[in-house]
Amino acid sequence: MIEPLEILIAFTVGVLLGLMYFGGLSWTVGKFAHARNPIALYLVSFGVRMTALLLALFVVLKFGIAAILTSLLGIIVVRFVLTAWFSPRKTVSGNGGDRRATMK
To answer: Which range marks the domain in which residue 38 is found?
Structure first.
């Protein structure tokens, strides 16, 4: 049986992996406009991010299936939090969705 401390550590590892993976993705997307070869940038970035993620998950897997599932949950939580944080905000103003202030 897995201990609560091990669950907390596995979740924390998942959160850190999610921040690394999605932070690297954000960095890559930010560099696309100025890259001489965006395809190479994408492929290298994806390779580095995926290799680091899979190696870390392989290490976590040695602690059992509960630890790997908890780490994956941490990665998914980071994805949802970052998506909510960086998604465009919808306005409820009566100006047709235009965020600029209108003078009347």
So the answer is: 4-84
- Counting every residue written for the chain, the total comes to 104
* Helix orientation angle between 4-31 and 38-61, rounded to the nearest 10 degrees: 180
Domain count, the chain: 1
57 within domain boundaries: yes
User: How many whole angstroms separate alpha carbon 50 and alpha carbon 48?
Assistant: 6
Tokens describing residue 70: 């908890």
- Both structure tokens of 74: 């941490």
pTM of the predicted model as reported, rounded to 2 decimal places: 0.78
d(CA 45, CA 65): 28
Phi first, then psi: give them for residue 40, nearest 5 degrees: -65, -40
pLDDT band at 89 (very low <50, low <70, confident <90, very high): confident
Q: Does the residue 49 lie in any domain? A: yes
Q: How far apart are alpha carbons 71 and 81 in whole angstroms?
A: 15
Q: For residues 73 and 67, what is the distance between their CA atoms, to the nearest angstrom?
A: 10
